[in-house]
Design a protein that fits this description.
Helix content is 44%, strand content 15%. It is an alpha/beta fold and 331 residues long. Helix 4 packs across helix 6. It starts with a helix and ends in a 6-residue tail after the last helix.
């Protein structure tokens, strides 16, 4: 049974989250897809973004992957997520092909690199540019900051940040961020390491969902810091891949709406079919700020299932840790 202190802390978060949904975000949209500002960059991005990993999965027909990207861009989504290591580069290759023929101009294109030293990072940046068939990446992020040692390696002399800054100076990159799914404390370490080096990230990506709220929470620890510093917050894993849905406590639309209700710039969700893309489009079009009562009810439904982290395997296991399985990607 929750203590009075725990109850009050949870209630305070619920009130704050409800207020965020009601006061922070305006009604700006393109077509019927809401748009938000990407932190200090001032860029406008769609409320929902398309995750790149699922587009490159072997069971997804390459032609359908192209159709997903085209339909998303045609119907108002502009944020595309990707990574150098997704499906051995196939995800970037498919998106690169989909963006030919004028579609590149419709997209705010993000990808990520794993390299921790300058040479490895630069090689991965150039490979991503070639696969994506573009001369610039709108947002480049350091991927899988999941170890206590990652911030020090990235910011060290001869580290990956030097490559990224050189690429930005050369016009290959517009904005710089980082992503991770393991621990909010490691995110805070990355932010403090950046500050110690006089550097401020443009964006930070992290899991933000109905389970995270209850367990080792990025929402509680990291999101307020990003909002305070006007760093664009990117929500990922709104359904914890598919594991949160396996808890049978919430629906896919409830998961998406919860993440959209947070003070984030975009909610990135994987789409491996046109049907799942339609679900994401529907969630964005139907989103309305949640009331305190709606929020309380949703969090009450997920509290017991979330308490051990069994549906957040990215925090509690190596299931999602690509660089743990492939340390050579780090350099």
């Amino acid at each position: 049974m929750a203590t009075r202190r725990e109850f009050l802390e949870t209630a305070a978060v619920i009130v704050a989250t409800a207020n965020w949904g009601q006061t922070v975000w305006g009604a700006e949209s393109k077509g019927d897809i809401p748009y938000r500002t990407l932190g200090r960059t001032g860029e406008k991005v769609s409320l929902v973004g398309i995750g790149g990993y699922h587009l490159g999965r072997p069971y997804v027909d390459p032609q359908e992957a192209t159709q997903i990207v085209h339909k998303a861009l045609d119907e108002g989504i502009n944020f595309l997520d990707n990574c150098w290591d997704y499906n051995g580069g196939e995800s970037e290759l498919r998106v690169g092909r989909a963006l030919s023929g004028g579609y590149r101009n419709k997209a705010f294109l993000m990808t990520k690199i794993d390299g921790r030293d300058k040479a490895t990072a630069m090689n991965q940046i150039n490979e991503s540019l070639k696969r994506l068939q573009t001369d610039h990446i709108d947002l480049l992020q350091f991927h899988e900051v999941i170890r206590d040692t990652d911030p020090g390696r990235i910011f060290a002399a001869g580290g990956a940040l030097e490559a990224v800054q050189e690429a930005k100076k050369a016009g290959k990159i517009r904005y710089i961020g980082f992503t991770g799914h393991k621990s909010p404390d490691i995110h805070l370490l990355m932010l403090s390491t950046a500050a110690a080096h006089g550097f401020t990230f443009d964006t930070v990506q992290m899991p933000l969902n109905v389970m995270d709220h209850h367990f080792d929470s990025f929402e509680a620890k990291v999101l307020p810091v990003l909002n305070q510093q006007n760093i664009g917050a990117l929500a990922m894993k709104p359904m914890g891949d598919h594991f949160i849905l396996q808890s049978k406590t919430v629906s896919a639309i409830e998961c998406l709406h919860y993440s959209m209700n947070l003070p984030v710039s975009v909610v990135i969700t994987g789409c491996d079919s046109l049907k799942i893309l339609d679900q994401a489009l529907s969630a964005a079009r139907s989103f309305k700020p949640m009331s305190r009562g709606q929020l309380s009810a949703l969090l009450a439904k997920t509290a017991n299932a979330a308490k051990s982290g069994e549906y957040e395997l990215y925090k509690t296991s190596h299931h999602f840790d690509g660089t743990y399985q492939n340390p050579q990607w780090l350099g």
